[in-house]
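Sample log: Prephenate dehydratase.
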Amino acid sequence: MSVSVGYLGPEGSFTEAAANAVLPSHKCYPYATIQACMAAAASDEVDIAVVPLENAIEGSVNMTLDYLIHKQDIPIIGEVTVPIQQHLMVHPDNEHIWKSMNNIYSHPQAIAQCDDFITNTFSHANIHYMNSTSLAAKDISENPDMDGVAIANALAAKKYGLKIVQHHIHDYDNNHTRFVLLSKQEQKEALQPVRHEKEKTTLMITLPSDHSGALHQVLSAFAWRKLNLSKIESRPMKTGIGHYFFIIDVDHAMDDVLIPGVIAELEALGCGVRILGSYPCLLTETVKAKPIPE
Ligand SMILES: O=C(O)C(=O)Cc1ccccc1
């Protein structure tokens, strides 16, 4: 059965590439912002939303995390990590004058991933933050007089007929972004053909106020059960200085014993616990091998 998939558009974004990599045979629909894409999944306009959550160079995509925490409780049903290559591209009319152009357009994460390159090569330029890298590429392609360059991926350059003038301009080689799949349904059928390496559970935890050693006790609840944590991050509760949620990724699927045991222990400490999802870490290159003929 085919499902509908929303992604941060327009076509040619990194998010579209991630969505196509894991759900290649499903229809994908572009949304102008991360929030609009998540809202589409919350209102059942699409079955699954694919949005960026974390980048190896720049850290969390706070927009995504905060929407999940504060706006809509849409479970994480899968994650996929993909390599990210940033390139500098211009309208073909401007191929030979790109160094003198005065405006750089891209998504804030892409701008941040290329900070050294921008500082060294474009210190004179104005930076324009766009909703996505592909929107930046599209705008440049439609406006040769914009006096600008875009930072985006090779797919966007191809799709919008732009000329890549500098390849691989991200500051660190190992540039990866982790995208999450969000859905109100489990979507077992859609995900069943996609191989995965392991499972994770993401929890949002609030500490009891003014309780010394509370975070230490929270971490002990995972430690003595030998549950490995792959991420811990604090995000503001937005209720006052010093009020934080902790978002914790556990390298373990929701089960009947260990994770419920942790949650019960944390609640006994006075913590609030919300499960943001328990989900497979999907592998991109693989759609399940064809069955061997009998
Ligand atoms: O702007 C895009 O193309 C996105 O999909 C968001 C993004 C930006 C930079 C790195 C990874 C994802």
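Observation: Residues 8, 13-15, 52, 55, 84, 107, 109-110, 132-134, 177 surround 3-phenylpyruvic acid (CB under 6 Å).
Observation: Residues 258-268 form the longest helix (11 residues).
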